[in-house]
Each structure stands twice: as C-alpha cells, then as structure tokens.
Amino acid sequence: MTLSADKTPQAVTRRASAAPRFMLSSLALALACALSAAPDAAIAQSAAVSINIGAQPLGDALMQWAAQTKVRVFYAPDVVAGLSTRGLSGSLAPEEALRGLLQGTGVAYRWQGDSIILTRDGGVTSLAPVTVLGNSDPSVTEGTGSYTTPASSAATGLTLSLRETPQSVSVVTRQRIEDQNLRSLDEVMGNVVGVQVVSEDSDRTDFWSRGFYIDSLQYDGVPTTIGLSMYGESDNDSFIYDRIEVVRGATGLMTGAGNPGASINLVRKHANSKTFTGSVSAGFGSWNQYRGTVDMSTPLNEEGTVRARMVALYQGRDSYIDLYHANKKVFYGVIDADLTPNTRLSVGADYQDKRPRGSTWGSLPVVFSDGTQTDWRRSKTTAADWTYWHTTNQTMFATLSHRFENDWEVKADWSQRKSKYDAKLLYLYGALDRETGTGLRALPGYWNSYAQQTSLDLQVKGPFNLLGRKHEVVVGAMRSRYGEDFYRYGFDSSTLASTGNFYQWDGSFAQPTWTASTLRDTVTHQTGTYGAVRWSLTDNLTAITGGRYATWKSKSDTRDQKDSQFIPYAGVVYDINDTYSTYVSYTDIFQPQDNRDRNGTYLDPVQGKNYEIGVKGEYLDGRLNTSIALFKVKQSKVAVLDGDALVPGSFEQAYTTADGVTTKGVELEVSGQLAPGWNAYAGGTYYTSRDADGVSVNTERPRAMAKLFTTYRLPGDWNKLTVGGGVNWQISTYSEVSAAGGTVTAKQKAYAIYNLMARYDFNSTLSAQVNLNNLFDKKYYLGGVANQVYYGEPRSVFVNLTAKF
C-alpha cells in the first residue's frame, strides 16, 4: 500500500520526548507505547531502529511496532479486526516498518501531531473521544518480543529502569519463558544468573543465590510467608505470569526481611485488550508428557473500559523416575476496570492443583557404607507404589490504583492465599552395603497441612520539587497474617515391613497402619512501614535513601518468638555518559529462620550487612541491558548443614550456625536484543564464602556458574523460522558425608547442559515449536539432602503447537 504525499501532514516535524511515559495497554481504541515519541521528519523517515516482529494478528504486531519504535498509534477496533501480517525484521526506519506491516491489509495511516492514526481504506475516523488506557506499568513484557524490560519496581518500589536501579535485577520476560519452554517457577529459576536450583526429592525444590537460600517470594510485589517447597509453590506454573523478576542481594526494603540471597516477584498477566483475542496450544513430549492451554481476553462493555482475561491449562506426565506420574490443573481469571481515565481496579483469582503419585521423600544414597560413592541409574526410585504428595494453592487478590494529575499515584493491594498439602511418603535411610544391597531402613510419613495468608499493602509514590530539582518518593505500609495447621499421623511400627535388597527395590512396600494425628498450630504476624527517596543531586548523580521498620511475631506449640528491626537502605547511581552508569548500594540483613539444630531448637535470626558496587549499560534505546556487579556480604548466625544430622523426632535436616561468614564475588549479565531478530540472555557468577577461620561454608553450592540462551529469527524468505540454543554450566562441588569409619567427601564434577529450540510460523495465527533439553544426555546431580543425591533430568524433547486468534 502506498500513502500519497498529501496525506502526510507537516506535523511530523515535531521532535519526540525521550522520557518514558506509557506502556502499551490496549488493542482497541488506544494502543500506546511505553515511551511517548513523535519523531521529527529526519527520524521518522531515515533513522533506523531494530525491528523484530513475527507473523501474527495485525493488532499484536502493531503493539510490538509501537514498543520498538516508541511511536503512539490509535485506531478503532474494527480497523484491524480479522487482519494479520507476515511480520518483518531488520534495521528499518519506523515509517518504513509500519508500511511493511500494513502492506496488503487495506489499512491506511496518517500522522496527527505526535501520533499515528490508522483507518480502513484511507478513510478518516474521528478519534476525539479516544483516550489511552491507564496501564501505566512500563515493565509489561507480553507482546514486546523482548528479553528485557524498560523498567522494574521490584528493588525499591520506585519505577526505574534497570540501569537506574542500584542492585542486580534479572527479569525473565514472557518471550523468554515461551522460547525456552519454561513451564514452572523452578525451570525459570534454573535459567537465572547466579541462581542454583536444588531438588530435595521428586516434589520439593529449593532456590539458592550467591550461596544463600531464597525464601522471599512476592506476588505482584506483595510478600508471602508460605513456604516455597512444601506447598508446591516452587512448581508454580509460569503460564499465568507476564514476567518473573529476581532481585539478587538483600531486599529488606520491599520484602521485610533482608535475606542476602534474592527475592522473587511473580507478576501476573492482565486483561489489556479491548478486542477479543487469545491463544490455544497443545503439546507433547518425553515420558508421555502432554499439555494443553487456553488464554482468552475480551472486553465486557462496548467502550472496553471493563475487560476480562481467563487462563486455563491441564498437564500430565510420567517421569524418567520409576513409578512417578503427575497431573496439574491451573485456572486464572482477572477483571481489569478503568473506573476513570486515571483509576483502575483489578480483581482476580488463581488456582493451581498438582497431584503426583510415586512421590519420593528424600533421594538416593550418595555413598555406600564403605565410603565409596554410588552411581545409580537415573530412573531408580526410593518411593513406594502408594506414595503421593498433593498440593493446592488458591489466591484471591484485588488492586485499586489512582494516578493524580501531578503524577502522584496511590495503590492498595489485598490478597488472600490458601494452600494445602496432603502427603503419604516413605523415607529410606541408613548405611547401604555395596555387596548385598541391604542396610537401608524405612520411615513412613503421613501429613496434612493447611495454610492461609492474608495481606494488605498500601503505597503512595510520586515526584516532588526541592531546591530547584525534581525528586521521587515512595512510602508504604504492609500487614499480613499467616496461619498454619499441620497434622502429623503416627503409624504402627509392628506393621512396618523390611526394605530388603535395595538393588531389587520396585516400590512394592506394604503401607503401614496409620494411627491418630497430632496438631501443630502456627500463627505469624508481620507488619512493615517503608519509605525511600530518590534524590536528584545533579544531572548525572542520584541517590536513594530509605528503610523499613519490620516487626515479626510467631507463636506455635513449640515456640513463641517476636522481633523487630529497622532495615536501612542506601544506593548511589552516577551516569558516566548516555550509555553507562556506575552504582553502589548498602542494606542491612535481618532474616528470621525456620531451620532447627540437632536439639530441635530454632536458629536465631541471621544478621549482617550487604554491599554491592557495579556498572550497568543500556543500548539500543533500552532494548539491551548489561551489568557487572561486585558484592560482599558479612553475616552472623548463618545456617549451614550439620553433616547428616536430623532434627529429633523427624527426618528434617538439622543445621548449625556459623559466625563471621563473609561472602564476596562478581556477577555479569546481558539481556535483550543484540541485533534485529537476535535476542540473548547470558551471564555468570563467581564467589567465595568463608567463616571467621577461613573455612569454606556450604561447599555443596557451586562457586561458579554461567548461563546462556539466545534465539535468532532468520531474515528474508526464511523469516518464519526462529532457531535458538543455550548452555548452563556450573563448577564442581563437594560435601562431607558420614560413612563407616568416619566422614568422606562426596563430589559432583563440573558439568554443562546444552539445550536447543526451533519455532516455525506457518502463518500469522499458527506456529509450532520444538525444545530439546540436555542435548548430550549429561548425567549430573540436581540436589539431595543429608547423605543423598537427586539426579537431573536426562535428554528430553517437547513439541508444542500454538494458535492465536
């Protein structure tokens, strides 16, 4: 389609503002980009930008065009209804790219001031009543096709670019989740720089960062207390989230507890479309995996000011581990209503239910009784044919936000999360004789647990002027109540069978006779008030100062504890030039612990200090971000494994504490678009961790890791094909374990896991993708507890077919 010269007004000579304003929010009457921009004639006609837009419905393609060119575009819903584009990629001028997208669609465009107006067949549509939807979150990644985000508020509560944030922040975007087929939180975390995923058994997964356990989890920025692994939250399905943010280092300002590892923030999808749109997919893979998903958005009124989104999926799979099978159901729904142009109400709920059978409790012995290291086939199990570990998580949430004319914003978040698990398991332990396969003993376990957390978070933020400069402030208050009822059943030991020869173990172990249960009731109250100010000291120098006053009170049958702490925060960012900034940050560490020692006593809270200094870079108008950080953490009362000791009366791993622990290291990260059609994520971590005597602690955690994944959409006639691949590498580790005659060292050699992917767009609505993981079928440990190891997944393949409408 050719646009005649008389339809291009002289208004195109106006210059764009470079300041971020709005993110894309609607596929209907208003479609706006995150950075308000109206290019002047030279920029609009000749200055090239990186364009990477695949074949898809025209409305989706225009959203990506607006995000990548920073030009706002307006149209009525019927202008793009039913239309599609084959997409394009390369270094193109914004107007040239737009013409390519619209070619053959019958849609015309014209400049109107700072924006593009679209009409059908060159007609003129009056857009006087059109307003831009109030989705002011510039962090949204869905539909951008990017591996990075323009902004995040996860670290400080202030909406800042990654370069402006004086901490290490990783964002796993919607596009990357789909490219790597990262279907659960543990799969996502396994592909984040500096994070180690540790599987204790078939259904419990822990996360570690910089050598520290991660127990800080947020939903849309609201902290939760419910444990990650016992209730299955580490296996949360990623399909309902727009992105997953990971702030490494202490995050006490926003989470209430300054754990030096990291904080995870799960950000939900929202209903941002004013037209009916959606997708369905079906996939299958190794070990009889099958998965089906539905994601639909629709307006609920003619104006599109009230919108709904519904997400559902069902997944089933066997496993490389004998006896194991799991089904998962997920439902998510949200209604987003623009009560006024500046006021938005979001109300929603999600439900995740996982029902595995053949679940293991613990893992395989790492050494024989004579001290030699074992080497099991990866399908070997310690489960019985009656074991299971069912988990259910239900959440209701509501968010009300209002933006005033002076750019101040007030927001209230309420959420209630109910979780439960029902588990019958079998733990095998003891000294295994290498010759006879005997020596293991069995401990059955049967539990029901119910947990509920209710949280309320109020936040106000905005700009203010002082001494002739513009600054930003955020203040907030949070309160939560967490209650848990834990039922533990006994068993008749006279009905307990012998394990026999473990080499012949096939799970046919008789279930014992269960006896009455005992109840452990726990109630935890947390409150927090926080605030931070971003001071603009000069044009190139900003400082963030603030803190959080947190109170924590927990009462149960076994302990009654309370504590309070002020957690200060400080950071300074200096812009070296238009591309690079250097920063330094400091925060205190205060972290209550749920770990117990070999006497059954809970450990005292961890306390310490966290320092970080680094350099960040931002390229291609924010489409590529880089960072290098040096960090140092000083702590006391740090939990470390107490050999293979257990908490009395349980098979819970016992811990002891180490004082004067100093951890220091370096991290590098690259995320975003290297060139048109070429996305990449890469990074590495190296650190040391020693106590006051210079002895290494937590040696089972890898001191060095590197992760890489990249995709490339082929140009020209091959532009329907996207190919990609990556590698995750970690250095060797070791741990001290008990054996006959004393302690021996069990080792994990350094290893690398290679992965590949390819996607083909048959047309604008239908695509197929294949992911091949662990290409060379590497055998490695993914975790374990005490004297045990859990093997990582062998080579696997998954094929997925997706249709968009």
UniProtKB/TrEMBL annotation:
GO terms for biological process: siderophore transport. The keyword Signal applies. It is found in: Cell outer membrane. Its main location: membrane. It is a multi-pass membrane protein. GO terms for molecular function: siderophore uptake transmembrane transporter activity; signaling receptor activity. Residues 71-121 form the Secretin/TonB short N-terminal domain. Keywords: Cell outer membrane, Ion transport, Iron, Iron transport, Membrane, Receptor, Signal, TonB box, Transmembrane, Transmembrane beta strand, Transport. GO terms for cellular component: cell outer membrane. It holds the Pfam family STN. Residues 1-37 form the signal peptide. A motif (TonB C-terminal box) lies at residues 788-805. Belongs to the TonB-dependent receptor family. PANTHER family: FERRICHROME IRON RECEPTOR-RELATED (PTHR32552), HYDROXAMATE SIDEROPHORE RECEPTOR FHUE (PTHR32552:SF74). This is Ferripyoverdine receptor. The lineage of its organism: Bacteria, Pseudomonadati, Pseudomonadota, Betaproteobacteria, Burkholderiales. The gene is fpvA_1.
